[in-house]
Design a protein that fits this description.
The chain is α/β, with parallel strands linked by helices. 37% of the residues lie in helices and 16% in strands. It is globular and about 65 Å long.
Length: 434
């Protein structure tokens, strides 16, 4: 549906990505990459023995700060419910209460050097050493910053995989040295981990193949489908149900909160803009955002209560998503699962997720202003998109589906290692085309 006005068309449900968005794992991945054909959905063989699985590279669980933690909080307990012995490593200093388990998952606390740059890699290094002394069948490392650390399990012949996350070498919050380090990790991860690289979007999968020659399996991030139970919660933040637009993200340049605020300042509306999110370090960028003189813009800071996050999403008039660096963004799939009307930056990553379930805008204040004004003036379109949003999650992003795919991938990876324990230099057999 295209509605023309102002500077150009507002495309409701627009997507420029025409690839098959079903997730591909194991042997199906590479043949699909080369032939672009559909493959059967993942099926898990329930007769196989339970696995001993470890996860690290995040802050740990339960935790509310980032997407990696939310990912593990959904995936790890589901694997435990299926009978697997699951460990999640946690950063010791971030958890005053050292609970031994969480929803059937064993928790192990190890030290880290808690700074903006060193927290993740120092903790992961400690985990790499510790896991070598444990009887695990496979472990998953999160975040490409930990790529070079994967030399340790490679040298010891352990079965492991890494979820590379996003394009961290392009993130503005990192200095030049850090971005270069991220890039080198991405460049060489295919050699360090030739059988276990995982991306969470087909566009990211393409980037790793075309830029680095790395074949990767593709398993997306998931979301739950939920609706509002306590709409009165939003009043604690000075908001009224369906009388505000919502930003829910880290306040960093690549998420474009400055562009969204500038566009909203021009919007003809009595609704508010609620900005939920922040950063865990001092930021001149965040300070500059708060200098707006528009009284309709409310900065809520980091919202750590998951139930409150749900209510803020479910009761928003529309959710504005400015993330520019992929892959599958947790905030975007979460917004769809909560039945939001989504207005998202036009990128291959966001289009892949939306696939006809939202409005997209160019990285331009004028364009976003016109798209927001259209959404403001057409509540019937907002209602239509709210109905489409959960269906998109059912199609490709339910957590049960994502868990099936990780479970199958782990079994495939272990099976490959058993067949070729000393052959790790011939390319990714896990994703070799039939």
């Amino acid at each position: 549906m295209n509605t023309h006005f102002g500077r150009g068309p507002v495309t409701v449900g627009m997507t420029n990505n025409h690839t098959d968005n079903r997730i591909l794992t194991g042997e199906h991945f590479c043949s699909a990459l080369e032939t672009k054909v559909r493959r059967p959905e993942t099926e898990v063989d329930r007769s196989k023995r339970p696995l001993r699985i470890a996860f690290f590279g995040s802050r740990g669980i339960p935790h509310t700060y980032g997407g990696a933690e939310a990912f593990l909080e959904e995936l790890a307990p589901r694997l435990a419910d299926r009978g697997h012995d699951v460990i999640v490593y946690c950063r010791n200093s971030l958890f005053p209460e050292k609970r031994p388990t969480y929803r059937g998952v064993r928790l192990i606390y190890l030290p880290s050097i808690e700074t903006k740059i060193l927290g993740t890699p120092t903790h992961t290094l400690a985990c790499m050493v510790d896991v070598l002394f444990r009887k695990t069948d496979v472990f998953l490392v999160i975040n490409i910053v930990n790529g070079f650390h994967c030399l340790i399990p490679r040298l010891f012949g352990r079965a492991f995989a890494i979820n590379v996350d996003g394009l961290d070498w392009k993130r503005g919050k990192w200095g030049r040295f850090a971005r270069k380090y991220f890039f080198l990790n991405a460049k060489y991860i295919g050699r360090i981990c030739p059988n276990g690289v995982i991306t969470d979007a087909t566009e990211m999968q393409r980037i790793y193949w075309e830029e680095f020659g790395t074949r990767a399996a593709n398993i997306a991030y998931g979301a739950n489908i939920e609706s509002s139970e306590h709409p009165e919660v939003v009043r604690q933040y000075g908001l009224e149900p369906h009388q505000y637009y919502l930003i829910a993200s880290r306040m960093v340049p690549e998420n474009n909160p400055d562009l969204i605020i500038k566009a909203f300042e021009r919007l003809r509306t009595n609704k508010l803009l609620a900005v939920a999110g922040g950063v865990n370090y001092r930021s001149e960028f965040v300070k500059s955002l708060k200098q707006t003189t528009d009284p309709r813009i409310r900065f809520l800071g980091h919202v750590g209560n998951a139930d409150h996050v749900k209510e803020l999403h479910c009761n928003a008039y529309a959710y504005v998503h400015g993330h520019s660096l992929g892959g599958t963004n947790p905030s975007l799939v979460k917004a769809l699962g909560y039945g939001n009307c989504v207005v998202a930056l036009n990128t291959p990553f966001n289009n892949e997720v939306l696939h006809g379930s939202g409005v997209t805008f160019d990285r331009d204040v004028e364009d976003l202003f016109h798209k927001l004004q259209y959404v403001e003036d057409h509540p019937e379109t907002v209602e239509e998109l709210r109905k489409r949003a959960p269906q998109r999650i059912r199609e490709a992003y339910t957590w049960e589906h994502i868990t099936d795919q990780y479970e199958t991938f782990f079994y495939d990876l272990i099976s490959l290692r058993a067949k070729t324990p000393n052959s790790v230099t011939q390319g990714s057999e896990v994703c070799r085309a039939e």
